[in-house]
Amino acid sequence: MTLLAFSKRLQQTGDSASAHQTAQDALALLEKATQKPSAGAVEWNEYADALLKVEQPDLVQPAKALHLAQNAVAATHRTNPFFLDTLAWAYYRSGEATKAAETEREALNLLPAGATGAQPMAVATAGVSRASKAVPPPAEWPTAATR
Asked: Which of 53, 72, 90, 108 could bridge across to 83 with cysteines, CB 3.0–4.6 Å?
């Protein structure tokens, strides 16, 4: 379970203070990962996505997420539908609904025909550089049944 998922569970149990602190800690760790010399599109996208979807409204940072998502999309030459999806959300949260819709359409057009569930993520991220190592091929990724 990720720290953000744990934060959500804490919020659901009514422990708002701990949920908020845990979310802050998670965001701080994600930010730290983006500052490493080996950081790249995966780290930028993960942090951007977290900044857009964190449960605590005061921690949501659309402008910062937009910058990170733009970097991730540029680094992958607009070929990763999941990074484009994050960028679409960043545009939307920044009040740019038209750009959000255009970017989401672009992301959807990159998905393999008939793609459903976790498989599109594995296909779309195969070969994306994470630090200096390639992302494992889709066969090594966990499926919904094994998560």
From this structure: 72
